[in-house]
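With this grant's support, we have settled on a layout for protein records. An illustrative entry appears below exactly as we store it:
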Amino acid sequence: MSSKTKIRHKAIPLAAVGLVVAACGGKPSKSGRPAEQAPQEATITVRDTMVPAVLEAAGVAEPYQRSVLSTRLMGWVTAVLVREGDRVEAGRVLARVDSREVAAKGTQVDAGIVAAEARYQEALRQAQRMRGLYADSAATKAQLDAAETGLAQAEAGLGTARAARAELEAVSAYAEIRAPFAGEITRRYVDPGAFASPGAPLLELQDASRLRVTVSVSPATAAGLNRGATLDATIEDRPARAVVEGVVPASSGALYTVNGIVENRDRSYLPGSAAILLLPQGSRRAILVPETAVFAEGDLSGVRVVGEQGSELRWVRLGRRSGGQVEVLAGLRAGDRVLTSAAVGGVD
C-alpha cells in the first residue's frame, strides 16, 4: 500500500471529528464574533437499557355515563326541547309527553282520598264512642271489637288512597323527560307529534367528560393489576393516562376484563375512538436513542452511525417514544455510536 493511500485512510476520521467540533463552536465571522450558532452535535454510544415491558391491549374509549331516556306514559309527544349535539345540565327538561290522562286520574284519586278520610273519621268516632260505652259496661266486647275492626279497615283504606296519589305523582313525573346528568344529546328518536309508549327510546344522553376503556386480557396479565393503578394509554395514537377502575372475570372463559378511566374534561378525545391500554409486564432490554438522532425520509426512519470512515446512514425500525427517547427495534446494536443533533441531516 502506498503512502498516499495511508494518508487518505487516516484523514477520513479526522475530517469527521473536525465536523463535530466545528458544529459545536460555530464559524467565526470577520469581526471576530461567532456567526449564527449551528445546531450542536454529539456522538453517543448505544447500550442495552432496561425498560418496562408492556402489553398493548386494544379496546374502545366509551363514555363513562350513557343513558337512553324513555317514559312510562303512553301519549303524544308535545315538545322536544333539544337537538343532537346540545349540551345540557342535570335536571333540565328535554321533552314533554301529553299528560291529560294522568291529570284526569289525579282528580279521581283526590276524590278517593277525601272519601277515605271521611270514612276514617267516622270509624274513629264510632270506636271512641264504643270504648266509652264499654268502659261503663253499656256495650259488649263484641260491639267494641266490631268498632275497632271498622277503624282499622278505614285507616287501611285511607293509606291505600294516599299511596295511589303518590304512585300517580311518580308516573306524572314521566310527562317531563329530564336529564339525569350533565352531558350531550347524541340521539333524538322522536319529534313533536310522535306517539310515545312506555319504554320506547326518546332521547340519548352521554357524558364524555370521562371515558372508559375496556380490554380483555389473560389471567396472568390481570394478576398484577389493582384498582386505582395508573396506566399509560393511547387514544387514536395520542397519549393518555388511565386509572384502573376494576379487574373482573370476563363472561367468556380464561379472560379478565380491565376497565381504565381516562379524564376528558376538555373533550380532547372523542368517544368511540380506538384505544390501547399499556399493561405492565415486568422489564426487558431495549436500545434507546434520543429522538434528535432520528430523521425521516418518506416512510423510512434513519440514523447516522459514526464509524472509522466517518458517519454513514443506517435505516432503522422504531418502536415506542417516551420522554424524548425512541426505541430502536431493528437496525442498531449495543456498541454502535450514533450522531445526535437538533437538526440531523437527511440522506446525502
DSSP finds four helices and 18 strands in the chain.
